[in-house]
Design a protein that fits this description.
Layout lengths: L1 E5 H12 L13 E6 L3 E7 L3 E8 L8 E4 L1 E6 H10 L4 E6 L4 E6 L2 E6 L18 E4 H11 L14 E16 L3 E22 H10 L6 E6 L3 E6 L2 E6 L18 E6 H15 L7 E6 L4 E8 L3 E7 L3 E4 L2 E5 L1 H9 L5 E6 L6 E5 L6 E5 L6
Antiparallel strand pairs: 1-5, 1-7, 2-3, 2-6, 3-4, 4-15, 7-8, 8-9, 10-13, 11-12, 12-24, 13-14, 14-15, 16-20, 16-22, 17-18, 17-21, 18-19, 22-23, 23-24
Helix pairs in contact: 1-2, 3-4, 5-6
């Protein structure tokens, strides 16, 4: 096996598949990346058994500077190989596999020899046997991920909550995540309707990696789903993720359908105040911030307290306030995550009582995006 390739295109492909490769895997060969070379293309694969990424460098694209002398396949140690390629001096690289999978990498005056492994021992990628795929706008799907993945659970005691629950039917997508202390729900209307209905849970870690791969400039992702795998096609790259098994809890009943107190703020303004209050709350054992609302005076006050350091109090003028007086305490980190996901929007905070979960929604199209936070009992 022997080929010459442009370093820029090769490095980009290596960085893409390396996202799926973990040094902590129990299968030693998965610490490597697989190269399959044909006359028309090089296919690179990386996997950690949960996610697998396959990307193709095509010979007919002149930017790749790809010239294949002989075909073949090899598995190379991912971290060393990627670091070597990045540091090579010239714009083109020649890679040649000799006896016993000894692999020689040359560029200019520099030459490395590293030990490879037999590609036949590399696990096969999942087979996605379905003819239907769902087209998704890349920037919109990236937004869905960023707005929901903040609420997934990090506790393996309930594995199903470590993922985002997707329900797709007709022309609607519903994405929900919860760790039982907070919840994030996003609804999106697709431009075209799909025939089948889908209900699946993708691990939050998979979605985070996928989000990093999706460039906003790319217009569309294609999603295919089978019983235990999801496949995202992004240009010349395939991203496979296992699906979580089990039934996701019914979260619809958690979201209140009425409120007793409502306050409106610009999300960045409230976020800045919560960040200031949490400077002191983080020094306290319980990490709590308190908010008091007085609709008669149209006043909102935020408190943060640490017995060892001191306290902070900040009066804020909301855009609007209505309903009953209220004093409520919450985890400021949850609130900051929720507020960041709204970007520059004006939001409503809806409360029912001091001990009931409260919601954050955009003032426009409030059904499309809901963040819910469970308060903390402080007495």
């Amino acid at each position: 096996m022997k080929f010459t390739i442009g370093r820029t295109a090769f490095t980009k492909a290596l960085n893409t598949v390396s996202r799926a490769i973990s040094t902590k895997t129990t299968i030693p060969i998965l610490t490597g990346l697989k190269l399959v070379v044909t006359q028309s293309a090089i296919v690179l694969t990386g996997s950690d058994a949960d996610i697998s990424i396959e990307t193709t460098i095509k010979a007919d694209n002149p930017d790749n500077l790809l010239a294949v002398e002989s075909e073949g396949s090899i598995v190379l140690p991912a971290r060393f190989f990627t670091d070597i390629v990045k540091k090579l001096p010239q714009d083109t690289i020649t890679l040649e596999v000799g006896e016993n999978f000894q692999t020689m990498i040359t560029s200019g005056q520099s030459s490395f020899t590293i030990n490879g492994l037999d590609a036949n021992n590399y696990p096969h990628l999942p087979e996605i046997q379905t003819n239907t795929s769902i087209p998704l706008a890349a920037d919109l799907f990236k937004q869905i991920i960023s707005q929901t993945v903040v609420a997934v659970s990090n506790q393996e005691s309930r594995p199903i909550l470590t993922g985002v629950h997707f329900v797709i039917s007709g022309n609607n997508i519903l994405a929900v995540a919860t760790d039982s202390h907070r919840l994030s729900q996003r609804k999106v209307t697709l431009e075209s309707s799909i025939d089948d209905a889908y209900d699946f849970v993708i691990p939050g870690k998979s979605l985070t990696e996928l989000s990093r791969m999706v460039e906003d400039a790319q217009e569309e992702i294609s999603l295919s789903v089978t019983e235990n795998q999801a496949l995202f096609v992004i240009g010349d790259t395939l991203f496979y993720s296992r699906l979580l098994e089990g039934n996701y809890p019914d979260t619809t009943r958690l979201i209140p359908d009425s409120y007793d107190t409502r306050v409106s703020f610009e999300a960045p303004e409230l976020l800045a105040a919560i960040e200031r209050a949490s400077l002191l709350s983080h020094e306290s054992r319980n990490n709590v911030v308190k908010i008091t609302i007085d609709p008669d005076k149209k006043a909102v006050t935020i408190y943060g307290n640490s017995p060892d350091v001191g306290n902070v109090e900040e009066d804020m003028v909301p855009k609007s306030v209505e309903g009953n007086e209220l004093e409520i305490s919450f985890n400021p980190d949850y609130m900051k995550d929720a507020l960041r996901s709204f970007s520059q929007a004006t939001i409503n905070l809806d409360f029912t009582s001091a001990l009931r979960p409260f919601t954050l929604t955009p003032t426009e199209d409030s059904e499309s995006f809901i963040q819910l936070i469970t308060p903390i009992r402080t007495f």
